[in-house]
Each structure stands twice: as structure tokens, then as C-alpha cells.
């Protein structure tokens, strides 16, 4: 792919100086910018444009020692992105990758919803540059913690979306499902409701044909069994493609993720959805470098795996696994017909 330049103001190194004696940071900036005023030096500090030994320096009271390295940049560095639900993992001139926790939608799902991953990240970068725009590349359900990737210009977004398998080499998830899956590995082949909806979403710069409905797309998901517990199985799932329908496909298979609501769940040991993203392998379309990101599986999933069935759960499982032909026919439950 050709090197696409962003509309953002690019950060450039203005000056670099290695301190030859102990002094204050303002005195040192006089060496960096001898033709600028002290007021300008303080403004650079407020705008987070100065790095001291690789760390952003904002205080004019900071002491600089002999051998310290000062670097001044044309555009300041934003303070760390920190919220209880989002953590910035990696960024460059073309992409932003964040880790989201469960409980936060990727984008707004109803009118007036402002606290989403997209809105929080967009507002964060606009605080540093009012012209900054971000473009979403993938989504996760509100209940699923994991990785969200953004492009920093529309051309990069379109390139990745149109060649998803070329650049997103792997996306993997760890999930604890109900039931004992006998095979050590396999594929989920049923068509998911989630992937059907995603397939009808709009792709940038492509005209949508409204004369007929777009054919549903299938998300191929392979799985490996990591461990088994009492009527529960820990799976490592790999998503092959852009359209994520793991939750629906597992439910259709008869093995819903623990914590699912209204999808045939029998185990009520948790209110949290027992799934998390584990890995993402990404090929950078501009630099050609591979980036591999891994997340730890939360401890509560392992605790659920080791849990024991309650008597009510055992009864529900027995009821589910008993064939209809073998169930007792209870005549006492039939009410007599009243004659008029």
C-alpha cells in the first residue's frame, strides 16, 4: 500500500540538546530555543512538547542534570488515556489500539448514548488536536472485553476493511461455554444472527444496492478445547474474517457462553459473560510490520470452570438431556374438559 499521509498535523522534532551541566529546565530550553522568549518556553511546557530523557516534562521547576537529553517537538503529547473502561495499548501515525472492559458499547446503540468506546477515544484525541478524526475498524459487544482498532484517516480505514484477511491475520477469544464438548477441536458452522446484521452494514465509499437484500455472510470460527469442568468447557476460539458472530453461533450449537441471558442458559453461576478476547495479530499496511497483542484471561473465568453444579442446575440439565419420548406422561396435569 502507498504511504497515506494523514490530515493531522504531524509531530516533528524541533531541537535536541544534551545537557552539559546541572540547571533548570527553563535555562535548558534557552539552549534549545535561543531566539524564543521565556513565555514561549513555558507555553511549550504547558503544551507537553518537551521530553526529558524520553518522558514528557511539563513543570518549569524540573531540574536538569548533566548528561540529560532534552527533545522539543512541534506538537505536544497527550496525557495518558485513562478511564476505568479503556486503556490505550498502542498508537502510531496511522492506527490506534485500545483495550476495552465489559460494560461499554463500541458505538452508540441508542439516541443520546455518549459514553461509548468510539466517543471517549474521539474526544480524547480531539482535546489535543481539534481536527483529529478516528475511523472504526472493528466492534465488540458491550459484554465482551477486548481490543478495538481505529484508523486515523479514511483511506487507511477503507484499505483495511476491503482487505481484512490480508491485514488482520488472527483474532482469538477465550470463552467458557455450557455443556461438555467431546471433540478436542472443530468449527462452528451455523449462520449467526450477528454476522447477518454485520454483513448488511455500510462499507465506506461503496454504494449500497437497495434493490435487493445483501446475502448473509458467514463467520467461520474454529475452536480448540482448553479444559473441561462440570458440564462446562473452556474454549479457545479463532475468528476467520471480519464478521463476529461467536456468541450466536455457540448458542445455536447448544453451548451458550456462561452468563448469556435469554439464550437457553441453564447455569446461573455468574452475571458476567464468560468471554474475553485473547489475541490479535495485525499486519501494518504501511510499514509491513507484524504487531501481536495478547490479553490475559480473567481469573473469574477459571473460577467458574472449577465451579460445581447446584441441585437445581443438575435437574435442569437432566431435563434438557432427556429425550421427549422417555419423559413421563403426567395424566394428573391434564385438566378435564368442562361440558356445557
From TrEMBL:
Residues 191-203 have a biased composition (Polar residues). Belongs to the pseudouridine synthase RluA family. One of its GO terms (molecular function) is pseudouridine synthase activity. SUPFAM superfamilies: Pseudouridine synthase. GO terms for biological process: enzyme-directed rRNA pseudouridine synthesis. It holds the Pfam family PseudoU_synth_2. It comes from the Bacteria. Residues 191-219 are annotated as: Disordered. Residues 94-251 form the Pseudouridine synthase RsuA/RluA-like domain. InterPro entries: PsdUridine_synth_cat_dom_sf (IPR020103), PsdUridine_synth_RsuA/RluA (IPR006145), RluA_PseudoU_synthase (IPR050188). The lineage of its organism: Bacteria, Pseudomonadati, Bacteroidota, Bacteroidia, Bacteroidales. It comes from Porphyromonas circumdentaria. This is 23S rRNA pseudouridine1911/1915/1917 synthase.
